[in-house]
Amino acid sequence: IVMTQSPLSLSVTPGEPASISCRSSQSLLHSNGHNCLSWYLQKPGQSPQLLMYLGSNRASGVPDRFRGSASGTDFALEISRVEAEDVGVYYCMQGLQAPVTFGQGTRLDIK
Amino acid sequence: EVQLVESGGGLVQPGGSLRLSCAASGLTFSSSWMTWVRQGPGKGLEWVANINQDGSQRNYVDSLKGRFTISRDNAKNSLDLQMNSLRAEDTAVYYCARSAGWAFDIWGPGTMVTVSS
Q1: Angle at A56 between CA A55 and CA A58, to 5 degrees
Q2: A100 and B35: CB-CB below 8 Å?
Q3: CB atoms A101 and B103 under 8 Å
Q4: Diameter of chain B measured on Cα atoms
Q5: What pLDDT sits at residue A90?
Q6: Which of A18, A36, A88, B96 sits 20 to 30 Å CA-CA off A5?
Q7: SS3 content of chain A, % helix, strand, coil (to 5)
């Protein structure tokens, strides 16, 4: 399954919203009714951290200004108000079938 | 505290072997699928392999089959990755991660592997 992210980079003013798209080459819908799509943020010099799982569920400790959504094979991660701590590279990932695959990553920086 | 800590990385010559380990603590290791993910210098994330709870199921990315072997020791809360016939393109930071609900919810800090003569 090929995961395609866009844009590959974006620069956002603090307090402004941001949106990252991810498209899968085939459905990620599991028989349980959930999309097997997760989002990760890799902050500079750190290992990736889980932000969202099953498309729209925030991981523990993730602020509610992060929101995940899905429409068919199109997924989105939205940040309602970007903060300085949000800088890094965002990855989507499909976990429906092996091999697990990631998007190319979207680099977010602050204007 | 829940954590994963990788070890065993280093410099190895092309064609050589290396064994990575991941020590788990603060989690029910024996109940978890576990995964290795790598990241080449300046590159994105690449899933390498995963293993189920008792080690009876193992999956690998096609490009690595036959060279890498994932294994686990539940008695020691340890995950391993045996890497043989290493190539320059295997140079990367290798992360172990716990699989939960089709996502990876806990990641280690990673261990660097450099394949170079």
Answers
A1: 115
A2: yes
A3: no
A4: 41
A5: 98
A6: B96
A7: 5, 50, 45
